[in-house]
From TrEMBL:
Organism: Grimontia sedimenti
Kinase recorded as keyword: no
Keyword Transmembrane included in the entry's annotation: yes
Transmembrane segments: 12-36, 134-157
Pfam families attached to this UniProt entry: EAL (PF00563), GAPES4 (PF17157), GGDEF (PF00990)
Key words of the record: Membrane, Transmembrane, Transmembrane helix
Domain GGDEF: 255-388
InterPro entries on file: Cyclic-di-GMP_PDE-like, EAL_dom, EAL_sf, GAPES4, GGDEF_dom, Nucleotide_cyclase, Rev_trsase/Diguanyl_cyclase
GO molecular function: cyclic-guanylate-specific phosphodiesterase activity
Protein name, per record: RNase E specificity factor CsrD
Amino acid sequence: MRKVAGMKLTNRLVAFVTLIVVCAMFVLFIGGAISFRKLGTDFLSHYLSKVVVEIDHAIANPVSNENIGLWLPQLLKASDIVELEINSKTGLLYHYEQIQTVGKSLDLIVNRYDLPSNPGFFIVIKSVPPYADFAYSIGAMSSLSLAVLVIVLALSWGIRWLRTQLLGAELLEHRGRLILAGRAEEVHTGDEREWPATASIALDQMIAELREARQERSRFDTFIRSNTFLDKLTGAANRVMFDNRLQTLLQDKGAQGAVLMIRIGDWDTLVHESGKEGADEWVKEVGNVLSNAILRFPDAVLARYYDTEFAVLLTHQSAKDARLFATQLMKALERLTPPECLEEENWAHLGMTFFTTGERRGRLMEEADMAKRSAVLQGSNGWYAFKKDVVADDARGSVRWRTLLTRVFEAGGPDLYRQAVKDAKGEELHTELLARIKDENGLIIKASRFMNGIDLVGMNSTLDRRVVGKALHLLRTGDGREVLSINVCAESLGQRAYQTWLRDTLLQTPRSVLNRLQIEVSEAPLVKHFDAVRPTLRMVRALGCAVVVDQAGRSVVSTHYVKDIQPKYIKLHRSLIRDIHQRPENQLYVRSMLGACDPTPTQVLAVGVESQQEWKVLLQLGVMGGQGRFLGAELSSSPATRKRQRWRKQ
């Protein structure tokens, strides 16, 4: 992949032009200095040769030879000759040396001349170098100084002109850098000054087509997810999604709840008497009543199982609460006015059965269907529960939950278990901290069970504060390399008091610690409270913590949040992963989620990987990593407990 140049085009051209001009000035300066010195040396040699000729003539002439001691010193002093010696074969004949001199002996120029008129005689002259006594003079060097000033001014003007001419190219380059940084939406339309204009217009057109293609792909992905797991008429879950959730729940340890089947009449009769549109309107009206009724249960699933039959999955609810809900649901349905083809007192029938961990999904649906038929045989609107022993009937009211949770928080908060998240090569990406509490009997309760109690008594923010505090403590006291991920409720992130507390806590934490902390938020609550949660998540990202969205696919929602908050990871819900190698519809959903994250740096992870077949299919689909018992079991954060757990595993 090609790398982007670090220096701008204008700066590179300006640097090139400046370098060329400076190099030219340097060459001219060096050449002028050498020529100037050469001229001075040649002038000195020519002048000294004239002096030597006069001395040669004076020595050859007897009259002048007698007076040489009178006029020669004055001539030598005027000529800046420091020392002169006249020698012959017999020895030194004459020696002259100035008493005061400016130059040093090492700086003097030594020349030797033979006397042609006096064979055997030669003169050695030591003179001051040319221009040794001259200093820089503005007057003398005014022409050269003016030339340098003109060159500098011309260079400055040329650089400004060059920057002006290349401003359009620089704007185009800046726009390209923003596009490469993933901020194409900010520069979808270019500046009119961009140059070349054809490249700018072409870029505008390509970005517009890219935006349209992304929107179309987003609509197509949403369409795929909706048609795969949602009923087109009512917007509720369809049979595929309901079966996936129920099958996954039955394999979770400690799971319990109830399955309800609601029949609202015969579809063929409705269509024949009321028409297709009238039948659809009646089904939608009943679906709205059922949707409003299950709002009090955050984890409940409503599905249109058949044409005129709905199924409701209540998770982690006791038999007592399920029976109370069935009674309230039937009262809500009886307020509706059914079509004329249906009997007003005998059109709604509900069958219910209870389940615990390990039961078969097919058997449960048969029990719910048998209970529904028993309700139909009663001959009036009503419900009937399948008779079976309820092994786990943990009926907790708000008082019991508040008492238990208060005791847990007074003891320091929930225990944190660890589970590693690994990539395709088996290397650990990060470690997720899972909250666990113990009941009155010392049994461990998973978050999926006690979160209903947390919501019931309103202790979401209290739980999140304890979890964040414990995670930061583990990061400060750890080896400095481990990355921890914690779950935080979207409701807490939307509260002003919790936002202030979280901001102050993170600001007091070193950046090196925050870079190893990840905040996980469930997808459905995030989308529901997106406007309230978005500022907090952006603040968390700005402080150095990564944002992770988990339980993706638990409910079919829009993925517009991916582009807005740009989470580091999206974790797929375990119901999509369970037996994915045998479920093409789940594979289609995963492909759709991968497509939604493709234009962004967000990576997709799988949660609940239980087998080699699931892991192999997920890697083939393009999932970056996974989490589950196949890749690593849950371990307690307590060193002693972790050591004991590893020993048992071995």
